[in-house]
Amino acid sequence: MAGMADTTDTTGPSGRAGHPLLARHAAALELFTDRVHAVGADQWDAPTPCTDWSVRDLVNHLTAEQLWVPSLVRDGATIDSVGDSFDGDMLGPDPVASWDTASAASREAFREPGALDRTVHLSFGDTAADFYCGQMTTDLVVHAWDLSRAIGADERLPDDLVAFSVREITPYAADLAKSGLFAPAVEPPQGADVQTKLLSLLGREV
């Protein structure tokens, strides 16, 4: 949540390029990018922990999510004004290149001077851009695990991103389950580590 996000600005009054939230968002993008680049040519149709989503569906979803960011954060667009521009297949014949382009655009939009201080018009109402950035960061982290499991990559997530995501998502995890964006929480195994607790909170069977 916006109130849970890091707020220390390490760049001083001239800008927010070194804001800790931006660093975590960039790290989450890099994490997911690493997994996208690891997808084998024969793995795009493989199933994922996300019900009814193949690897291609998952990457397409995250690609569309990144494509929304410049419109919402930089341009001040609304859901209605963007319409169905980012519906359907956003990957085309080169899924990796499409992801790289979308992720770079998302990163740069959030890094523009003053971007985190803006208000974005989301489906559930006007929202602080830093809250939106925190949500997007957590989404990338959790789906990086989904993609890792689907393609047989390393499922261990960076400790700092896991800790951030737990702080970010805990206050509204139940609402996400009600919205259908994530499955209902499952009980984590006894003695579970923080990563497992995060994944269990979002309905993942680890």
Automatic annotation (TrEMBL):
SUPFAM superfamilies: DinB/YfiT-like putative metalloenzymes (SSF109854). Residues 27-147 form the Mycothiol-dependent maleylpyruvate isomerase metal-binding domain. InterPro entries: CHP03086, DinB/YfiT-like, Maleyloyr_isom, MDMPI_metal-binding. It comes from the Bacteria. NCBIfam families: maleylpyruvate isomerase family mycothiol-dependent enzyme, TIGR03086 family metal-binding protein. This is TIGR03086 family metal-binding protein. It comes from Streptomyces rectiviolaceus. The lineage of its organism: Bacteria, Bacillati, Actinomycetota, Actinomycetes, Kitasatosporales.
